[in-house]
Amino acid sequence: MNLTILSLIAVFSLSCYFFGKSKVLKQTKISGKKFHSLPEYYGYYLAAWCGLPALIILFFWSFSELYIVKLFILSDFRADPSIDENKLNLIFSEIKSIAEKNFSGTIPQNLVPYVEKFLSLNKILELSKFAVIFSAIIFSLSFAYSQILKNIRARESVEKVIRVVMFLCAAIAVFTTFGIVLSLLFESIKFFTAVSIFDFITGTNWAPGRAFVRDASVQTADVENVFGAVPLFWGTFFIAMIAMCVAVPIGLFSGIFMAEYASRKIRRIVKPLIEVLAGIPTVVYGFFAALTVGPFFRTIGEAVGLNVSSESALAAGMIMGVMIIPYVSSLTDDVINAVPVSLREGSYAMGATKSETIKKVILPAALPGIVGSILLAISRAVGETMIVVMAAGLGANLTINPLEASTTITTQIVTILIGDQSFNNPKTQAAFALGLTLFFFTLVINIIALNIVKKFREKYE
Amino acid sequence: MKNQKIKISTKNLNVFYGAKQALFDVNLELEEKKVTALIGPSGCGKSTYIRCLNRMNDVIDICKVEGSIKIDGQEINKKDVDVNLLREKVGMVFQKPNPFPKSIYDNIAYGPRIHGLADNKNDLDQIVESSLKKAALWDEVKDRLNQPGTGLSGGQQQRLCIARTISINPEVILMDEPCSALDPIATAKIEELIDDLKKTYTIVIVTHSMSQAARVSQNTGFFHLGKILEFNLTEKIFKNPDNKLTQDYITGRFG
Questions:
Q1: Where exactly does CATH 1.10.3720.10 map onto chain A?
Q2: Element (H, E) at B68
Q3: What is the pLDDT of residues A204-215, one digit of tens each?
Q4: What pLDDT shows up at residue A211?
Q5: What is the C-alpha separation between B194 and B184, in angstroms, rounded?
Q6: Phi and psi dihedrals of B77, rounded to 5?
Q7: Which CATH architecture is the domain A230-460 placed in?
Q8: What is the per-residue pLDDT for B230?
Q9: pLDDT digit string (tens) for B185-241?
C-alpha cells in the first residue's frame, strides 16, 4: 500500500515538473510575459509542492497508524488490571500475526473478534490515508499553481527546498550516531547498576559465562568477580601492539619508497597492489591467520622446544599488522607527497643525498601526518574483530607471552552475543559496556589523529 | 670581457623534457666573481639553464641534458660526477623562499652538518654567525636563533636561504628569480647583498626584472625560445643591443 502511494507520488511529481515547465514556456510564448526564473525552476517548484507535503504526511501517518490501531484494539484488555504492558504487547502481536495470516498453531477463539476489528480498522485507515494524501496533493498543487501565475521567485524557493533536504540528510546521519551512542550508553548503565564500574575496569578475572548460569537470581558476589575486563583491555592493547610492530616499519618504509624512490611507473603499479591488502575481507585474513600462520608458528615453536598454542596473540597480531600496512603506507605516501617540492630541492641544492634529505627534512616535516596515520591505524587495529575472533582464541589470559592464546574486547563482544540471548542479564549487557569502552578508545584516538593530520595540512596549504 | 677567468662554460647544451626540447645549443661562458644576469620571456629556458649548472634537473625524471658543462675546466655533465660534491660547490637560491621547517640556527647548520664542515659546536656557531652576517640577517635574528625559520618575513626568509647557501662556502651561487616573491624593500636588500657577495662568489641570476638585471649584473644573456640570442656586457645590452628582439624585450614591447 505504502509502496503504491509512494510510486504514485513520484509519478505525480514528475508530471508536475513537466507541466510547470511547459506551462511557463507556453505563457512566455503566448503572452510574452516575463517570468522571474527559468522555466525549469517552476517545474521543480510545482514538483516540490506536489511531492513534499504528501511525503511528510505519509511518513507521519505510517508511524502513527500502528499506534492508533493498537490503542483501539487493546482498550478492552487494558481494563483488566492483571494484564501488564508486556502481556499487552504479546496479545497485540498475536492479533496482528493472525490478521496477516502469519500465525502458526491453533488460533485462540477469544481473539477472533479482535482480529476482525483489526482488519476493518486497518482498511479504514488505509483508505483515509489515501484520501488525505491525495487531497493534500490537490490542495498544495492548486496553491503552487496560483503562485506560479503570480510570477513568484521560484528559483529562490527551490534553493530553500534543496537546502532543507540536504540538511535533513545530514541530520539523519548525525542522529543515527547519537542513537547508537545513546543505546550503548543506556545498556551500559544497566550493566553498571549490577556490576560496579570500578570492578569492571580494574578486575582481572573475566568469566561472564558463570554469571549467565545463574541468570535471574544473580548473586552480587559472583557478578563482581567475573566481569573484570583488564585481561580484555590488555589483550586488545597487546595484539594491537604486535600489529603495529609489523605495520609501522613496513608501512612507513613502503610509503617512503613509493613517495621518494619509486619511479612514476613503478608507483603506479605498486601502490594499487599494496592497497589490495586493504580490500581483502577481514574474514579471509582471519582464516589465513587461524589455519596457516597459527599452525606454522606452532610447528616452528615445537621444533625449538617452545610450547605454542595454535591460537596465539602473535599470529593474530601479525596478520592484523599485514592488514593495516596499506593504511600506514598510503597515508605516509600522501603526507610525504604533501611536503612541498621546494623543500626537497632546497635540501638537494645543499648537496644532501636522497636519504639525508628524507631523514632530515622530509620526515620531520611530515612527522605530524605520519603520527596521525599511525594513530588511525591503531584505532583500526583496536576495533578489528574477525581476525582476532578466528585466530587469537578466547582465553582471557593476562599474559605477556605472545605465544599464548589471548582475547580482545571485540572477540568477547562476539562470543557474548552469539546465539540466543535474553537482553536483560548482566552478561549481555556486558557486551554493551565493552562496546562503549571500545567506542570511547577509538573515538579519542581518532580525534587526536585527525587533529594532528589537520594541523599538518594547515601548515602546508 | 677579456682577461677574465672563465668559471663556467657550456657548449652545445641541449635539454629535453620528454619529447619537448627546452634548450638549443646553448654556448655560454660565465666569468668568475661577476654577476651574470639571464633575462628573457617566461618559458624561454633561463631557469632550465641554471638548473643544469648544479645538475638540479636530475631530480626531474623525464629531463635529459646533453652537451658539455665545465666548471673550472672540469666536465660535470657525466655519469660519474658526484652531484653532492658538485652542489656543495655550486649553491642555489630558489624563486620562493624555502627555509626548512626547523629553527633558524638549524637551517644554516644543515649544510655544514651534512658535509662535516664543523668539528664541534663552537665551529658550527661560528659558521652560522658568519653566514648570517654575510647575508645581512644577523642583526635581525641573533636573539631568536632557536625560533623556526618559517616564522620570518618573506624577505628575511630569502636572506636566510642565501645564508644557508653560503654556509658551505660554495664557489658559485645560482639564483632563480630570488626576488620575484618579495616586496620592493626586501628586493633592494637582496640586491645590495648580491652586490656584496660578488666579491667572493660567482653569481648567476635569473630575473624577470630588467631594472634588476641592469642594477646588479655585469654581464647579461638574453634567452628566447630556448636559444641564447645575445650575451654581452650588461651596459651594452641595455644601451645598445645588437639584436632587434633583445631591444624589443628590454623596452617592453613583448614578453
A1: 230-460
A2: strand B63-71
A3: 888 776 655 544
A4: 56
A5: 15
A6: -95, 60
A7: Orthogonal Bundle (1.10)
A8: 92
A9: 889 989 999 999 999 999 999 998 888 999 999 999 999 999 999 999 999 999 989
Cell of B188: 633592494
* Alpha helix stretches (DSSP H) within A304-362: 313-338, 341-349, 354-357
Cell, residue A188: 551500559
Cβ <8 Å between B94 and A343? no
Task: Give all strands of the β-sheet with B6-17 in edge-to-edge order.
Answer: B20-31, B6-17, B63-71, B74-75
Instruction: Give the three cell numbers for residue B6.
Output: 672563465
**Alpha-carbon distances, residue A240 vs A115, A367, A374, B25 (angstroms):** 57, 21, 12, 61
In chain B, what residues touch A340 (CB-CB under 8 Å)? 98
- Residues B126-179 have pLDDT tens digits of 999 999 998 889 999 999 999 999 889 989 999 999 999 999 999 999 999 999
Q: Where residue B255 falls among pLDDT bands split at 50, 70, 90?
A: low
Cα(B195)–Cα(B197) distance, integer angstroms? 6
Q: How far is Cα B13 from Cα B27, in angstroms, rounded to an integer?
A: 7
- Containing B31, the helix (H) or strand (E) segment is strand B20-31
More confident residue, B255 or B76: B76
Q: Is the pTM of this model over 0.80?
A: no
Give the ipTM.
0.91
d(C-alpha B88, C-alpha B170), whole Å:
6
Q: Report the gap between the CA of A348 and the closest CA in chain B (Å).
A: 8
Would you say the C-alpha torsion B91, B93, B94, B99 has a positive or negative sign? positive
Optimal mutation site among B48, B55, B110, interface A, most CBs of chain A within 10 A:
B110
Beta carbons of A365 and B87 less than 8 Å apart: no
Residues in chain B with CB shorter than 8 Å from the CB of A344 are 59
Between CA B27 and CA B23 the distance in angstroms is 10
Query: Is beta strand B90-93 parallel, antiparallel or unpaired with respect to B172-176?
Result: parallel
Q: Is A264 on the interface with B (CB under 8 A)?
A: yes
- Asked if B18 and B39 count as a contact pair (C-beta separation under 8 A), the reply is no
Partnered with residue B210 across adjacent β-strands are none
Segment holding A258, helix H or strand E: none
- Cell numbers standing for residue B196: 656584496
**From CA A205, how far away is CA A397, in angstroms rounded?**
9
C-alpha cell at B51: 638548473
Backbone angles phi and psi of B231, in degrees to 5: -140, 120
Which residues are within 8 A (CB) of B165 and not within 5 positions of it... i.e. 6 or more apart? Answer: A349, A350, B91, B92, B93, B111, B173
The beta-carbon contacts of A354-361 under 8 Å, at least 24 apart in sequence, are A354/A260, A354/A261, A356/B114, A358/A256, A358/A260, A360/B110, A360/B114, A361/B100
Nearest residue, CB atoms, A264 vs list B54, B61, B92: B61
Instruction: Give the residue from A430, A312, A326 showing the smallest Cα distance to A376.
Output: A326
DSSP state letters, A120-184: HHHHHHHHHHHHHHHHHHHHHHHHHHHHHHTT--HHHHHHHHHHHHHHHHHHHHHHHHHHHHHHH
How far apart, in whole angstroms, are the C-alpha atoms of residue B78 and residue B167?
27
Q: What is the DSSP letter of B95?
A: S
Positions of chain A with pLDDT lower than 70, given as ranges: 209-224, 420-424, 457-461
- CA dist A373 and A371 (Å) reads 5
Q: Which residues of A touch B86 (CB under 8 A)?
A: 351
- Strands lying side by side in the sheet with B172-176: B90-93, B172-176, B202-206, B35-39, B219-224, B227-233
Contacts with B200 (C-beta within 8 Å, 6 or more apart), sequence order = B33
Per DSSP, chain B holds a count of helices (H) and strands (E) of 10, 10
Which chain B positions have a beta carbon within 8 Å of A264's beta carbon?
61
Give A404's DSSP letter. S
